[in-house]
Design brief:
Layout lengths: L1 H5 L3 H136 L3 H17 L1
């Protein structure tokens, strides 16, 4: 460092200072404006990028809000569809139950009617058989009792008396 202080020349210092100032002036005239312009362009592009990021953020928030709304609407619609499906299923079940009860009542009524019809037919057949048996028994008794003429005449007289009395 001492050597630098001993070698100091004021003329050289002034000459270097003048060259430095000329170089600085040239740089200010030639390079300073493009550097400032590039800094401004860079600053503007950063601002635009920040604004675009803010707009994108707002748009994302809006999309999320829209998505939430769509999701809520879809859930409500799903719940409505499920509710309707449950109601339809309950109605179908109730209709099937009612139809089954009606069918069972109809079958019971048909069975009762069939039983009554068969009962009436059986009673009629029994009556017919009883009547036939009664006639056969009466016929056999009358043939046995009326085999002689005197018994026949007594029976006729008895019938005639009964007819006159009634």
């Amino acid at each position: 460092m001492e050597q630098l202080i001993n070698d100091f020349s004021p003329g050289l210092f002034i000459m270097q200072s003048v060259i430095f100032l000329i170089l600085l002036f040239i740089l200010v005239k030639v390079a300073w404006k493009p550097i400032l312009n590039s800094i401004r362009v860079r600053e503007d592009s950063i601002k635009e990028a920040l604004e675009a990021a803010e707009r994108a953020k707002e748009e994302m928030a809006k999309l999320q809000s829209d998505n939430q709304k769509l999701l809520e609407d879809a859930r409500k619609e799903r719940d409505g569809i499920l509710k309707d499906a449950r109601e339809i299923a309950a109605n179908l079940k109730e209709e099937a139950k009612t139809e089954a009860n009606k069918e069972a009542q109809k079958m019971i009524a048909d069975a009762k009617n069939a039983i009554n019809t068969e009962k009436q037919a059986a009673l009629a057949e029994v009556k017919t058989q009883v009547a036939q048996l009664s006639l056969q028994i009466t016929e056999k008794l009358l043939r046995k009792n009326l085999s002689d003429d005197k018994a026949q005449k007594d029976l006729i007289k008895e019938f005639v008396k009964d007819v006159k009395l009634n």
